[in-house]
Amino acid sequence: MDARWAGEWGRSGLAYLTGLPDGPPDFSRAHVLERANPLASDAATLLSGRAGLLGLTRRGRVSAGGATRLMAARDGWCAITLSRPDDIAAVPALLGLAEAGDDPWPAVQRWVATCTAADVVGRAGLLDIPAAALGEATAAPPEVRRVAPRVSPRGPRGLLVADLSSMWAGPLCGQLLARAGATVVKVESPARPDGTRTGHPGFFDWINGGKLSYCLDFDRQADELRALLAVADVVIEGSRPEALARRALGPNDITPRDGRIWVRITGHGARSRRPAFGDDAAVAGGLVGAAGGPVFCADAIADPLSGLEAHRAVVESLDRGGGELIEISMAAVAGTYARLPLHTSATELPAPPPPAPSVSATAAALGADNAAIRQLIDEKRCLPC
To answer: What Pfam families would the database entry show (predicted)?
Structure first.
């Protein structure tokens, strides 16, 4: 069993993405693929596909995508992500400096070395900068709470899915539901569309191709969005709970619908306001490579793993008849996978770069399906009539 999954880990490109940049590929987390493989027929591709499209490689304590770094604090390791302009702008306040220079990372690393990991995470959190202490998160399954009456068990085919999420984890869950025959509506604000729209077009198409695009202002057009959520069979979102609640768009605000499943994917759980991205969430869960470690494991691996687990949770909820709110913490998902046995770090097995996945559909332009979606909402409203 070990040899089989180590071989799959190597052939998928996941070993190639894990380890020190001047060292051998790291096979220590091969059992991650063993657990993920039953969740999708192409789980290995889903875990390494972004890196294949972007041509990423292993960089040790710098994430494959380059936005997150693992650094030694006084009492352990921690990760900080500077992926958004606001994160970089907040670095001087984080360090207590007037400015941090064109490259803030050397100053950040010197500051981290003087702090405890908890102090780093706490101060970063005050500034809304994603940060995590290595292994701080507890492994846990999704939290499931009954919020509406159940219906007869059913599959995804023919269901209407409102996907309010962005980036990778939530959109991957929506993509897997679309593959299974659901109608998936990708919802975005014109002021803040999914950030991956402006990134590598192949990645955005890979994750969002085949979805309908609905673009509307969450404040001025809240009633229109509320109408979509009211008729949806599944809602996927990754917002902080208060972001939707203050617009009366949360799961407690929408007209009840029997069997509706509401999936919320957050970095550290719904009771935490801390932001997170795939690499720092993986560090929080302790999901790091062991060879010369700690080093980053693959590419933002908590993101696709959380998308896979969210899809599994939706399918299981459909089997129960739905009517549930499902809370998924990316850090807890990473912690669950981190508890799997470690494989031997170095082997003679091949570890080629991850192949780029085939992209079968171009994602819809922002708001391209607004008229069709409004008609779909009207039709769904009339179904019980």
So the answer is: CoA_transf_3 (PF02515)
Look at strands 76-81 and 68-73 and give their pairing: antiparallel
Question: Domain boundary residue among 105, 133, 161?
Answer: 133
Both 129 and 153 in one domain: the answer is: no
The candidate with the shortest Cα–Cα distance to 168, out of 141, 134, 206, 142, is: 206
Q: Are residues 90 and 211 in the same domain?
A: no
Q: What range does the domain containing 182 cover? A: 143-341+357-382
Do 234 and 191 share a structural domain? yes
pLDDT in tens, 353-380: 999 999 989 999 999 999 999 999 999 8
Nearest to 15 by CA among 289, 356, 369, 384: 289
* Same-domain check for residues 127 and 147: no
**Phi and psi dihedrals of 78, rounded to 5?**
-145, 165
Position 1 scores a pLDDT of 45
Query: Is 150 found in the same domain as 103?
Result: no
Residues 113 and 196 both lie in one domain: no
- Tell me the average pLDDT of the chain: 94
368 exposed, middle or buried (CB, 10 Å; 0-12, 13-18, 19+)?
A: middle
What total of structural domains would you count in the chain? 2
Please indicate, yes or no, whether the overall pTM of this predicted structure exceeds 0.85: yes
Q: How many Å apart are CA 263 and CA 235, to the nearest integer?
A: 6
Q: What is the DSSP string of 79-105?
A: EEE--SHHHHHTHHHHHT-S---S--H
What is the strand order of the sheet 131-133 is part of? 68-73, 76-81, 131-133
- The 10s digit of each residue's pLDDT in 129-138 is 999 999 999 9
Residues 6+ apart with CB under 8 A from 207: 168, 171, 172, 175, 196, 363
pLDDT score of 383: 66
384 — pLDDT class (breaks 50, 70, 90): low
Q: How confident is the model at residue 245 (pLDDT cuts 50, 70, 90)?
A: confident
Omega of the bond prior to 304 within 30 degrees of 0, cis? no
Q: Tell which residue, 207, 188, 157, 234, has the closest CA to residue 54.
A: 207
127 with 149, same domain: the answer is no
